């Protein structure tokens, strides 16, 4: 049993499903690909519902022909797709695109059609970050960050998503947006921090406790607990635990707080976030709520400028461009030095057991034989 409706001079077929009895509306042409069930067996209701769907589809088809989908519609479609990445990664990719569009065009995603944007947006963004002119012949340290931002934003236009965009009614040519400029990166050796510089940094950090308590906690969490800026911003007192000997800041996925760890640190990792400074550890145990509450201040400004500027008093940008993140490396050095003798003794013991048992690999000894 069939029926038809006419919308804007176009005929749409209604077919009744013999099993469910519900009506479906269908039309397949070069411009229109519509096949939806109405969810009702009543013909009058089905005709009304199908007319509404057909109107929406024809409007969308016209906009497709004109290339009128905005980048905001593309972004929302991207966020709705099932993807391998975690939801917060997809959100971050969209935010990177927003940031790039604002810097290059001084507009929002709603103000630009997807067809009006080409691969030049990535070159223009690189030029903006370089001060107005892109020089592909000169290696730059900041090109790492620029390329990372571009790749995150360009992931909205990944080839693997083309069929999903088409299913969502967005059939546009994103091939141009996959052309990412190759930005040469300055290869520099990591500059070691001298003992004198480290001592001066620690002395200045202690003075921050009276002068700027938020910066004191920020630097302390990076230098003595090895936290990233995103982890420092999210960290709360409930993350700080102690077994009576060591104080640790446990970093793990906390969906209930909207936080997902970058490294996926396990709670039972015995060196995870161990606080190396005893006085600072006691300070953290005395806190309540968020460890670093910057209030209404911009996180980009606080972590990206204020904290980085403080670190660069001791480690200039010309020597190491990482700023606050460089303290995470210093923390790793300190943990290594603190536990190195224990680890070496443990390795020596395992190796002795391996030799005694005649194993070619210590992995076999560890996995199948050692009980402690």
Looking at the chains present, what oligomeric state does this protein adopt?
single chain
Give me the Rg, rounded: 29 Å
User: Numbering strands along the chain, what is their spatial order in the largest sheet?
Assistant: 1-2-3-4
In whole angstroms, the N-to-C terminal distance is 75 Å
Structure, explained:
The chain is of the alpha+beta class. The protein folds into 4 domains: 2-66; 71-178; 195-334; 336-368. Helices cover 48% and strands 8% of the residues. A hairpin with a 4-residue loop joins β5 (240-242) and β6. α4 packs antiparallel against α5 and α12 crosses α13 (362-368).
Question: How are the SSEs ordered, and which strands pair?
Answer:
Elements: E1 2-7, E2 10-16, E3 23-28, E4 33-37, H1 43-66, H2 71-80, H3 87-105, H4 120-129, H5 143-154, H6 162-167, H7 195-211, H8 213-225, H9 229-234, E5 240-242, E6 247-249, H10 278-285, H11 299-311, H12 326-357, H13 362-368
Antiparallel strand pairs: 1-2, 2-3, 3-4, 5-6
Helix pairs in contact: 3-4, 3-5, 4-5, 7-8, 8-12, 12-13
């Amino acid at each position: 049993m069939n029926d038809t409706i006419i919308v804007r001079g176009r005929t749409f077929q209604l077919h009744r499903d013999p099993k469910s009895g519900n009506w479906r509306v269908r039309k397949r042409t070069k411009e229109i690909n519509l096949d939806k069930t109405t969810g009702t067996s009543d013909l009058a209701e089905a005709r009304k519902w199908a007319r509404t769907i057909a109107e929406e589809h024809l409007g969308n088809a016209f906009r497709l022909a004109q290339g009128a989908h905005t980048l905001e519609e593309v972004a929302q479609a991207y966020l709705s797709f099932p993807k391998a990445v975690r939801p917060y990664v997809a959100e971050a990719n969209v935010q990177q695109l927003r940031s790039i569009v604002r810097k290059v065009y001084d507009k929002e995603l709603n103000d630009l059609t997807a067809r009006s944007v080409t691969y030049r947006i990535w070159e223009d963004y690189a030029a903006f970050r370089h001060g107005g002119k892109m020089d592909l012949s000169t290696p730059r340290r900041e090109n790492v960050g620029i390329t990372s931002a571009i790749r995150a934003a360009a992931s909205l236009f990944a080839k693997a998503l083309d069929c999903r965009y088409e299913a969502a009614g967005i059939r546009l040519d994103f091939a141009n947006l996959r052309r990412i400029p190759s930005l040469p990166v300055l290869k520099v050796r990591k500059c070691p921090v001298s003992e004198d510089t480290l001592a001066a940094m620690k002395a200045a950090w202690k003075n921050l406790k009276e002068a700027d308590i938020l910066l004191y906690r920020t630097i302390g969490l990076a230098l003595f607990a090895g936290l990233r800026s995103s982890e420092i911003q999210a960290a709360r007192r409930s993350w700080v635990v102690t077994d009576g000997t060591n104080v640790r800041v446990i970093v793990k996925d906390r969906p209930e707080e909207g936080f997902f760890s970058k490294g996926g640190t396990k709670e039972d990792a015995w060196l995870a976030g161990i606080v190396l400074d005893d006085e600072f550890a006691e300070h953290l145990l005395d806190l309540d709520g968020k460890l670093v509450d910057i209030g209404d201040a911009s996180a980009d400004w606080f972590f990206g400028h204020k904290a980085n500027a403080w670190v660069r008093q001791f480690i200039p940008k010309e020597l190491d461009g990482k700023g606050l993140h460089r303290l995470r490396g210093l923390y790793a050095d300190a943990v290594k030095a603190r536990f190195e003798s224990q680890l070496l003794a443990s390795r020596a013991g395992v190796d002795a057991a391996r030799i005694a048992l005649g194993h070619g690999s210590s992995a076999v000894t560890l996995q199948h034989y050692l009980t402690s």
